[in-house]
Amino acid sequence: MSSISLPWRGARMHIVHTESIGALGGQSLRLIDEARLLVERRGHRCTVIGPQGSGFEAAARARIAFVPFRFHGGSVHPLDLAKALRILRDLAPDVVHTHSSSDSWTFGLAARLLSIPIVRGRHIAKPIPSSMFGRLVYTRLADAFTVSGRTIGRILVDAGVADPERVFDTPAGVDLARFDPSRKDVAGVRRELGIPPGARVVGTACNLRLMKGIDTLVDAHAALLDAGAPDLWLVHAGGGGPTVLAELSGKATRQVLFLGFRTDIERVLGALDLFVLASRASEGVPQAILQSMALRIPVLATRVGGIPDVVEDGSTGFLVERDDAVTLAARMTEILGMPASALEPILDRARRMIVEEHTLERVVESYERAYEVVTR
Predict the structure, then answer these.
(1) Are 40 and 127 contained in the same domain?
(2) Each residue of 298-326: pLDDT tens digit?
(3) Which pTM value belongs to this model?
(4) At CA 305, angle to CA 214 and CA 2, rounded to 5?
(5) Where are the alpha helices (DSSP H) in 242-286?
(6) Same domain for 159 and 58
(7) Domain that holds residue 47
(8) Alpha-carbon dihedral of residues 158, 161, 167, 169, nearest 10 degrees?
(9) Which member of 35, 192, 324, 337 has the greatest number of CB atoms within 10 A?
């Protein structure tokens, strides 16, 4: 694996990334990190276009060149297209790299009209639309794809909208210096959160959306408390809507902490005994799973989307079926009770997989290969 500290040996490019999701979560955070690395370590120029007035804009502006854009939603709004054409003419990029639905339609069409090569980022494991119109954003507004996991790549190829040689596997990369298991501060973080010494702590990190299965995790935790596990705490880190938070808070009984969005997620994850992601649909390869593995935290997740691409049951982590709080609770008990002799080899394999396959270096190198293909 080549080092990201070496400059890109090909032609330096101006890359425009577009993202129409304004919520600050895994997808937008990784884009900020990746754009910075393309600039600072690989010598490219990057501009990111994202929703005006969003949490994404607030986080991105201090770190990267950012152009705010007011998306009207849907496929292509005439006003959005006209503005996108003006922006791309002014920026004159070598490549446009789109990442979500609205921006892929708007800036994909603008780039096509201006004969600018397009790379489409696909981050969710949803089926490709069957209608001719719905498929246009894949068949006509993308020259190559970057995908957040092999499962998503197979979906594109099997649907007939992508050639395998133009699909590049780019799950989120992990900053190994930041997610370093030797720097964990378990006692300090738990003290800050008011968790008593000797407690067992299960946690998750994701946006507060019901598709993430947080309600199932809350139910599993409550069942374990009722069954006689009084020292078990549940921690959630991540932003989200107040309606979902109110619903989950109403379901939660005791010893459940909703921390909100955390800029120090490495500290929170590092303080867990077990990371759980109970998603019920559409996942690519979630960042928080990879980050937990890098920190040598055991991972228990549902068998949905691209999660099995990295979580192999009993080898690099543990898998359960979705929407099954009873089985989830049983597996949580099993893993928390495993002796170190059984758990350590799993943590070793997971950490080694991250170091060898899922670093930021790998992601950026795959992006560059995609850019090289579309600009030939």
Answers:
(1) yes
(2) 999 999 999 999 999 999 999 999 999 99
(3) 0.91
(4) 110
(5) 242-251, 265-270
(6) yes
(7) 14-173+359-375
(8) -60
(9) 35
